[in-house]
Amino acid sequence: MNFDLPALPEGWVYSSLEDCARANSISYGVVQPGSPVTGGVPIIRVNNFRGTRIDLSETMRVAPEIEAKYARTRLAGGEVLLTLVGSVGQVAVVPDALKGFNVARAVAVIDPLQHVSAEWIALCLRSPLSQHLLTSRANTTVQTTINLKDVRALPIPMPPAAERQTITKMVSALDDRITLLRETNATLEAIAQALFKSWFVDFDPVRAKQEGRAPEGMDEATAALFPDEFEESELGLVPRGWRSCSFIETITVIGGGTPKTSIREYWNGHIPWFSVVDAPAVTDVFVIDTVKHITEQGLRNSSTSLLPLGTTIISARGTVGRLALVGREMAMNQSCYGLRGKASDDYFTYFNTYRIVETLKQRTHGSVFDTITRDTLAGVCVVYPNGAFITAFERTVSPVMERVKENLKQAQTLATLRDTLLPRLISGKLRLSEAEAVLEEVAA
Fold it and tell me: Do you know which CDD domains this protein is assigned to (predicted)?
């Protein structure tokens, strides 16, 4: 296959991806996985890709006898994964922790030769050149699909080994910083999640006072808010003075919309426009940017509206139950709802929604697509405290959640820097010394 390729520096060459991989190692995974099986073999699907990493929060497991037919794509760690269907061109390197996993039909496995690192292959596949070549050859008749033949033929720039290693280290250093920020966010989100569960699900402070103990981890004023006994409710025993009610009674529901795609003036503006593809990993919580953006004109001439900071978004059609907290003003499409608490309770509303999301998903209806409706939201009962408890919770978790948001912004800044440097580095257009100076400035 002929490619119109940019010139490389002296000493660099192009090699096909197939020539950079072990013989016959570029293949796709399980074609017909069947129904999910508890305790089966986990497989990586397109929905598990999050940037440069794999998110295992929604992993499908298939029957071992089905997976056994696809031993060729069983992961050992160190392979490169590439999405072939739908959101094509996403790339990740398989960590050792995923040894024994397999992949779906929509994911290609690439096993690099020993002298060609997986990290280098992944960097090249993420580059604008590779992404352009992939999308330009994709079949879009039904669903965007990349042919393995085209994948194998992709040109990979190959500088001398020492330069390759230096470039890989530079980009990996940025990736490591991004990973550390995300790991910190996972810890912070778990702290906030645990506090919500302790106060509003397990009622630990009430149980402590009932037993004559001081509630742990709170000041006297906050502890004084909690009663020392329970009372009966529709949901069983709840703290005295709290009530059970329909979830929809605790929120205001906001709908979304899509500006006409045929009118160019409505699109590519400065207003983020959320759809389910923008849903963050659970531990990132916030959404601070989106794939698509609309203009003020598009906003005015459609049923969408600007969502205030702190709004909880839930995907309600197709891929249901994905959550996000609005980290900057944005619009959203009609397949989502925006949920606003009625008591200035952004974080309480988010964690309360997170707690019941599995119940909501189980109660979806729709003849073609699973759908969460307003009736679905109304059909779930929750325990609801009075405003003083919610205010205390918001005050306690706000510093934690603000740090999550700031970490996410920093991670996005680093990712933008990485994506800016990457194409210039792997094409030889940016000197290594210049790239090192940029990285030192960022680290300062």
Answer: RMtype1_S_AchA6I-TRD2-CR2_like, RMtype1_S_EcoJA65PI-TRD1-CR1_like
Q: Which helix (H) or strand (E) holds 399?
A: helix 387-426
pTM: 0.82
H-helix or E-strand containing 27?
strand 27-28
Q: 249-384 is classed in which CATH architecture? A: Alpha-Beta Complex (3.90)
CATH of 13-158, one of 3.40.50.720, 3.30.530.20, 3.50.50.60, 3.90.220.20: 3.90.220.20
Q: What is the pLDDT of residue 57?
A: 81
DSSP letter string, 331-392: EE-TTEEEEEESSS-HHHHHHHHHHHHHHHHHT-B-SSS-B--HHHHHT-EEEE--HHHHHH
Average pLDDT score over residue span 99-111:
97
C-beta separation of 307 from 252 below 8 A: no
pLDDT at position 409 over 60: yes
Q: Smallest Cα–Cα separation from 341: which of 314, 312, 316, 315?
A: 312
How high is the pLDDT of residue 230? Answer: 96
Q: What is the mean pLDDT of residues 375-398?
A: 95
Please say if the pLDDT value at position 431 is more than 90.
no
Q: Evaluate whether 54 touches 60 at the Cβ level (below 8 Å).
A: no
Sign of CA dihedral 259, 262, 266, 268: positive
Number of helices followed by number of strands (H, E) in the chain: 12, 23
What pLDDT, on a 0 to 100 scale, did the predictor assign at position 289? 95
Closest to 171 (Cα-Cα) out of 108, 97, 121, 107: 121
Tell me, what's the pLDDT at 2? Answer: 61
Q: What are phi and psi of 307, to 5 degrees?
A: -90, 130
pLDDT tens digits along 139-164: 888 889 999 999 999 999 999 999 99
Long-range contacts of residues 295-299, Cβ cutoff 8 Å, at least 24 apart:
295/265, 295/266, 295/267, 295/268, 295/269, 295/270, 295/271, 296/269, 296/271, 297/265, 297/266, 297/269, 298/259, 298/263, 298/265, 298/266, 298/267, 298/269, 298/271, 299/259, 299/271, 299/331
What are the residue boundaries of the structural domains of the chain, listed by start?
Answer: 13-158, 249-384
Better pLDDT: 435 or 382: 382
